[in-house]
Amino acid sequence: MLDILLVVLAYLIGSISSAVLVSKRFYGIDIREHGSGNAGATNTFRILGKNAGIIVMVADMLKGFLAVKLSLVSSYTWTSEPFVNLQVVLGIAAVLGHIFPIFAGFRGGKGIATLFGMILGIQPLVAVSLVGVFMLMLMATRYVSLSSISASIAFPLLILFIFREPELSYKIFAIGTAALVVLTHHKNITRLITGSESKVPIFKKRDKKRKDNE
Question: Which of 7, 68, 139, 205 has a CA positioned 20 to 30 A from the CA of residue 14?
């Protein structure tokens, strides 16, 4: 019974749509009516700028992290297989809450930041490695979608071949995550192929200097 309550609570935590709250409270708009229509950090960066985007990204990551940490109140031994399984389930519940938030009409984002917060809560070293992959791709291309896809594909590779995670549930989750992220970014992939995907103007000064030197 406790596990079920924790899963429900994790979903409710994930359902707190920071993008919707920030856009409505401070900008007087619903972020879902602009840009890609997603209530996530990427769309917030594009529409509302860096400051709002950073706030939303951190808040969404925190949702996944806190959801995983709900496992600490369970009766399982911290290093046991049931404990890891519960962490994975709680994290998934938070991600589903972000994608289908009960507090925002079940219209949320793609869950990438929440997913990262979940991984950070379970295995920090893997999370740091994924940040490295994400940032390298972002600095090279300025495509958040491509950076997210690259990091998601790197996730199971790290779990299976670098960190050699022993828990089967975590391996399955990592592989499933990579597949899900690719599927949910199919429109972005099409735009990347056609060259119509929007870049995030994070490195304006660098790009301006490069353009001036050309």
Answer: 139
214 class by beta-carbon count within 10 Å (0-12 exposed, 13-18 middle, 19+ buried): exposed
Backbone angles phi, psi at 99, to 5 degrees: -75, -40
- C-alpha to C-alpha distance for 214 and 209, rounded to whole angstroms: 9
Instruction: Say which amino acid occupies 173.
Output: F
Q: Is 80 helix (H, G, I), strand (E, B) or coil?
A: coil
pTM of the predicted structure, to 2 decimals: 0.84
Task: Give the whole-angstrom CA distance, residue 120 versus residue 114.
Answer: 10
- Tell me the per-residue pLDDT of 120-173, one tens digit each, with 9 for 90 and over: 999 999 999 999 999 999 999 988 889 989 999 999 999 999 998 888 888 999
Kindly list the domain boundaries of the chain, sorted by start residue: 1-122, 124-214
* Six-digit token string for 91: 């994290």
Dist CA 152 CA 166 (whole Å): 19
Task: Return the DSSP state at 197.
Answer: P
**What 3-state DSSP class applies to 25?**
helix
Say how far apart CA 146 and CA 89 lie, in whole Å.
26
CA angle, corner 203, sides to 111 and 179, nearest 5?
25
Tell me how far CA of residue 190 lies from CA of 27, 101, 128, 176, in angstroms. Answer: 31, 27, 29, 21
